[in-house]
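Researcher: Sit down with what I've pasted below and flag anything odd:
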Amino acid sequence: MGYVRGLIHGTVAGAVVGMLVAPRAGTETRRRLRDQVQRWSGRRQRVATGLHDTWTRTQPTVRTAFQTAEGVAGVVQPLVESATQRFIDLVGRSPRRPEGDDIVVPAAPAGTDPTEALRRQADAAWRQAVALLAAVRSQWVRPLRRYARGFRRGMVLGVCLGILYAPQSGRQTRRLAAGALGVTRRLRALRRRRGAPPAR
């Protein structure tokens, strides 16, 4: 049960679903999609041209704003540095973070717990259970996840392909399928009445 198998199964199932829900025949859908893409590309070209024109008009203003900001930063930075130095001088020391020696953690006395052996056994049992779950996960869960991931992606691909290449609209396809199922049911009922074994 690998990713590729799930992808293939999902694509086939998605193509069937896509054909059943297609709003129109695939040739009509592709033609409409092509027309829409051409309209969007024309709009995109107009927007890109407009953005370029706007940028060329505002570029001198942006340059002036950057130059002004650099001048202000050149004036403000020495003021901030001197204020920081004055604050450090007033406090009398530089700020520092606590180091490892500043943090004291009391140590628990070793061997004072009478149930230490019981805890060790529980820990060993827990480790065995975790190892068993890891084995089950690697044996079954991971392959199923890979299969499911492939199936989901295949479904999306298949639905798109089914809609784009549907021979007719989904409504017509559903009617055709319902008619085929009805004929099959009638043939089975007729064979049962005659006593013949049903064909498979």
Notes: The first helix runs from residue 3 to 21. Residues 94-108 have pLDDT under 50 and may be disordered. The chain is about 80% helix and 0% strand.
